[in-house]
């Protein structure tokens, strides 16, 4: 009988991936962390039965979650990643030459250890600019103020330890942790899945209230539920579609080298939202 991994996002509707074997399974203090070898997508990392990344499509998520915000900031030097234990977001942030320090605050060391072992090409953990801090991201932002140029929320879905990352109080703390001109990006789930709508609306509303500019943008990630994924970008200063941000994208993109999804056309077009998505945000 063939082995399959299934992630159901509505009753019996979901995503199926063919599995060759289970490589790793550990119930950590926080969650069930597993890595599978798949028949199509390379190795697959799941947390509590939800897809976090596959080796073949992770570039979409990580490039879009990082470069949009980093180019929106005039000169990002100090970056905070909340979550992101697989190292993919940090890898992309570290492509930017202006970045001097990346603090990655991951609650679960098991995710980092499993990623280093079974997803060795995803992270860039030996980079001396990267500090890995094992702590609850919410507690961490509660004690930092006016420290970061860019904050990237690379958490799991809004269940379990990541639920708080979709709350108003957390976003208020992130706002306080950002310096003047600070920029935040966050992963905010699929607009096709109704159970995600409350979280999407909550984050959009609070970012709108707090920041000078805030937008949803989208990308296509085949191994996330429905394949259409939303993210948000909020800025204390100029927005991601300002003339200066677009100039930075045009000039800076060649320095990043060998990206697989993000480019200057994608940067602009990702912010074009279909009517049904605008209606969720209205
Ligand atoms: N259902 C997927 C939600 C996205 C979770 N973050 C993925 C972590 C990859 N760095």
Q: What key attributes describe this structure?
A:
Spermidine Synthase, Chain: A, domain 2; seven-stranded mixed sheet; Rossmann fold; 2 domains; binds spermidine; five-stranded antiparallel sheet
Would you mind describing this structure in some detail?
- With 282 residues, the chain is of the alpha/beta class.
- It folds into 2 domains: 4-54, Spermidine Synthase, Chain: A, domain 2 (Roll), CATH 2.30.140; 58-281, Vaccinia Virus protein VP39 (Rossmann fold).
- It is 31% helix and 32% strand.
- The protein is built from 9 helices and 12 strands.
- The strands form 2 sheets. Strands 8-7-6-9-10-12-11 form a 7-stranded mixed sheet, with helices on both faces. Strands 1-2-3-4-5 form a 5-stranded antiparallel sheet.
- β3 (32-38) and β4 form a beta hairpin.
- The mean pLDDT is 96.
- The site of spermidine has 14 residues, from β5 and α2.
């Amino acid at each position: 009988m063939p082995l399959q991994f299934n992630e159901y996002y509505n009753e019996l509707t979901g995503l199926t991936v063919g599995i060759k074997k289970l490589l790793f399974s550990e119930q950590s203090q926080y969650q069930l962390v597993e890595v599978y070898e798949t028949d199509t997508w390379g190795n697959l990392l799941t947390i509590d039965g939800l897809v976090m990344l596959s080796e073949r499509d992770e570039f979409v998520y990580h490039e879009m979650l990082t470069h949009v915000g980093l180019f929106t900031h005039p000169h990002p030097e100090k970056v905070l990643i909340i979550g992101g234990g697989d190292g993919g977001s940090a890898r992309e942030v570290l492509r930017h030459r202006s970045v001097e320090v990346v603090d990655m605050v991951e609650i679960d060391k098991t995710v980092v250890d499993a990623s280093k072992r079974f997803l060795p090409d995803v992270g860039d953990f030996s980079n001396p600019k990267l500090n890995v801090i094992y702590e609850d991201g919410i507690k961490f932002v509660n004690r930092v103020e006016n420290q970061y140029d860019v904050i990237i929320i690379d958490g799991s879905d809004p269940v379990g330890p990541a639920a708080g990352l979709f709350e108003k109080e957390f976003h208020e703390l992130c706002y306080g942790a950002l310096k003047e001109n600070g920029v935040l990006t966050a992963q905010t789930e699929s607009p096709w899945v109704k159970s995600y709508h409350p979280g999407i609306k909550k984050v959009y509303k609070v970012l709108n209230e707090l920041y000078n500019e805030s937008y949803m943008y989208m990308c296509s990630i085949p191994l996330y539920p429905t394949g259409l994924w939303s993210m948000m970008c909020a800025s204390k200063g100029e927005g991601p579609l300002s003339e200066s941000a677009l100039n930075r994208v045009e000039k800076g993109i060649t320095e990043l080298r060998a990206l697989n999804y993000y480019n200057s056309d994608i940067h602009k077009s990702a912010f074009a939202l279909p009517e049904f998505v605008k209606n969720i945000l209205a």
